[in-house]
Amino acid sequence: MELKTGNGMTTFQVMAELTIDEFPFVEGLPKREKSKLASLWDHLEEARAVTDEKGLLIPLTYAAKLGGVSHQRIFQLCETGHLEKVMFADRAHVTEDSLVEWVKSERLSGRHVEATYKSVIKAAFQTAFEPLKNRKKSQK
Predict the structure, then answer these.
(1) Is 91 exposed, middle or buried (0-12, 13-18, 19+ CB in 10 A)?
(2) Which residues pair with 91 in a beta bridge?
(3) Which of 68, 70, 98, 110 has the highest CB neighbour count under 10 A?
(4) Contact 57, 86 (CB under 8 A)
(5) pLDDT digits over 55-112, tens only?
């Protein structure tokens, strides 16, 4: 039940103003920290806002496990822009969408080598005649 004063203010508002106006020493006192519940609520609101904007956030070490690579490789991919890195709660995360896109496009391990016509023909002949060489060795 709120009591109204003559000027339309509630008694709580009047008391709050009295503390500031009538007791100036109160300003110098340390302020009370937020309660654990209020602090938790603020963190959850921040998480909801980031998730609404960026989608699901995955910690880097878990992203490395899901991608089958080391966490150093995930850091490299973030630095080169292949994965979208988001800092949240003093931790690095990647977005679900960027991780899925990277996994879809991931090449086999090893370096990409440009193949020439000559190297392809040579590899084909070696592959084709390998069984014949092995058969000749076994007959001797």
Answers:
(1) exposed
(2) 88
(3) 98
(4) yes
(5) 889 999 898 888 888 989 999 999 999 999 999 888 999 998 899 888 888 655 555 5
SS3 35: coil
Record the pTM. Answer: 0.51
Token readout for 75 is 């850091």
Q: Which amino acid is at 84?
A: E
Q: Count of residues for the chain?
A: 140
Please report, as a single letter, which amino acid is at residue 66: L
Q: Residues near 104 by Cβ (< 8 Å), separated by ≥ 6?
A: none
Q: Residue 87 forms beta bridges with which residues?
A: 92
β-strands 57-59, 85-88 pairing: unpaired
| Distance (Å, whole) CA 36 – CA 60 | 28
Beta-bridge partner residues of 92: 87
